[in-house]
């Protein structure tokens, strides 16, 4: 079997808030309707669909994770320099994201971590070659 494409589906409380947050960070919209808003991430256009939680609950036949109690996944966003990590930090703060890990060195890299308004976690990582 050959996998042609993979994407992520996450549950959110407020589509308009989610659309505004990811738009302010400069991600490319991939469509929206009454049940989801969708964005493309990175050069390969990795897609994340953000579904309203009721629709998401039906799709997975379960409750959405309570992100105040734990973690479902963490996405990593690559940066080209420590300066770009700091640019992301400012953009995330301005868009209303929550910083859960301040900028710091890790092995030979540099990163910070943030959560979107629904608690979905990301880190922005510079890892020199």
Automatic annotation (TrEMBL):
Location of the Glyoxalase/fosfomycin resistance/dioxygenase domain: 8-123
Gene3D superfamilies documented for this protein: 2,3-Dihydroxybiphenyl 1,2-Dioxygenase, domain 1 (3.10.180.10)
Superkingdom as given in the UniProt entry: Bacteria
InterPro entries: Glyas_Bleomycin-R_OHBP_Dase, Glyas_Fos-R_dOase_dom
The protein, known as: Glyoxalase
Organism: Flavobacterium pectinovorum
Organismal lineage: Bacteria, Pseudomonadati, Bacteroidota, Flavobacteriia, Flavobacteriales
């Amino acid at each position: 079997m050959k996998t042609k494409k993979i994407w992520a589906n996450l549950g959110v409380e407020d589509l308009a808030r989610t659309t505004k947050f990811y738009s302010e960070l400069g991600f490319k919209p991939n469509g929206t309707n009454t049940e989801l808003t969708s964005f493309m991430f990175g050069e390969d256009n990795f897609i994340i669909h953000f579904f309203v939680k009721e629709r998401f609950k039906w799709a997975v036949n379960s409750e959405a994770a309570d992100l105040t109690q734990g973690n479902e996944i963490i996405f990593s966003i690559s940066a080209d320099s420590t300066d770009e990590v700091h640019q992301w930090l400012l953009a995330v703060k301005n868009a209303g994201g929550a910083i859960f890990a301040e900028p710091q060195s890790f092995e030979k890299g540099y990163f910070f971590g943030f959560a979107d308004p629904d608690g979905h976690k990301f880190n922005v990582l510079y890892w020199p070659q």
